[in-house]
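Let us practice reading a record.
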Amino acid sequence: MAFAAALSFCPLLPAQASAAGEAPIRVALRARAGGADRLTPLRYLGGFETKTLLYETLVQRGADGRLVPGLATWTIAADGASFRFRIRAGARFHDGTPVTPEAVATHFRRWVGLPEHDWLLANRRIREVQVDGADTFVVSLDRPYPLLGDLAAINPCAIAAPGARDWEGEFQRPMGSGPFRFLGPTADGGFLVRAGDDAPIVEIRPFPRSNLDPTHDEAPLDEMVAGRLDAFVGAWDEDLPARRLAEIDADPRFVVQQAPGSSVVFLSFRMFDGPTADLAVRRRIAAAIDRRALVSELEGGRADPCTAWAAPSVAFWPRRPLVLPAEPDAAAPRLALRIAAARLNPRALRVARGVAAQLARHGIDATVVEADPHAEIAASTKKEGTVRPLTAESGEVRAAVNRDLRGIAETADLCVEITHGMPYDPQLSLVSRWGGFENHNEDEPRPELGVDPALRELVLQTLSIPDEMDCVPIYAQIQTRMDEAVLMVPLYVPRRVAVRTIDVDGVGIGPDLYRVDLTRLHRAVRER
């Protein structure tokens, strides 16, 4: 009998697992703790890496950034307005039932057209999902559109099993076709998973990130040092202190793994007025940037300099060679600018300060303007009329803080921004930032500093080309426009980081920031 069918759904606490001779391997992932009801692709809670253990998307990004099959392969119709998918042979949900076109169509009906998913443009383009055979289905659109990149998004596109819901349609348990089966919750807000009969039980412990208290983010490292964790895998935009990682790396009890990242830290400009509306000023700023120094000083070397919109891990994106910064020109007139972090993020603020220091050596006095998120949070959490007490982690509070931050950023001449990385880079992030579309996700607004019309036109062209590889010539034009008009200054790409004890091995990380491979996780055999 298949493993998925052999195990029934029941809570299994760590003590019980240990008593059965299977002490769980304890892995920390970034997510806010909560019930198993958060572990569904149809809720924007519960963490991305946690869900990719349990669910699969039809399409995903490969190690080189290209779109590759996930749960299904595909063909694109000649008119570019429909995609035929074939489900992977033998694919089954964790209850042993086969993944069918009917199950996929039902999952699509649960999210397509709902306004909370409007950040994903496919939500406005999909018109119908039709079953077309025992293992095939067709997704029809209202026009030619690059659907595949959108379907790599975990929320809401990863496919949940029909058995995840009861007969009334209420979500009951996490159940997909991913590499791990959900065994049950733990008493402290975590949960247990297992990849197969012979695989170890893995205890997933969620650790939320705080953009207000950097010491809070070090909690997984503290737990490892205390012997209460076996591994920790950093998530998107992970920003552990370089000093602390160096200390851990020097400790013989631990191993710090690194892998190429895919989110790009970059500078954007105020384009419609002020000093940076002048191309000569933007060129002067770009020429002053020392990327290698930023990587060394701000990231402890755990990042890679970048010269393009997409990270080096997106192999098909055009890019130019790295050049050394220009020597300061004592005859150049001094400039006074304002620089801000465009998101509530310690890294963005740290980069703003680092860039300001570099610009000062080139006769550009850049004042870092900062928001006061603590004041906004204090005010927001006191508001009445909600169905539950508000905290600093509540969506309403984060949205209010980011609106305040956006107001600050819109007064700046330069902003530090960070792309989302794979699976959203390069295309989804490109359209969101430079396509001129309204950002429907108030939790992460971007400053309205102006979008170059020529760049916007090129970006919009990509929205009518169904196959992303056919967009590469336009991507070259986009990057050329960015470079020639200095519309942004790419800085660097933070690397992915995982930390484990020497007693475990098999943690796999790559440039897709929302995925971690734990299928080879095992207790290490140590020589005596």
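A brief commentary: The two ends are 39 Å apart (CA to CA).
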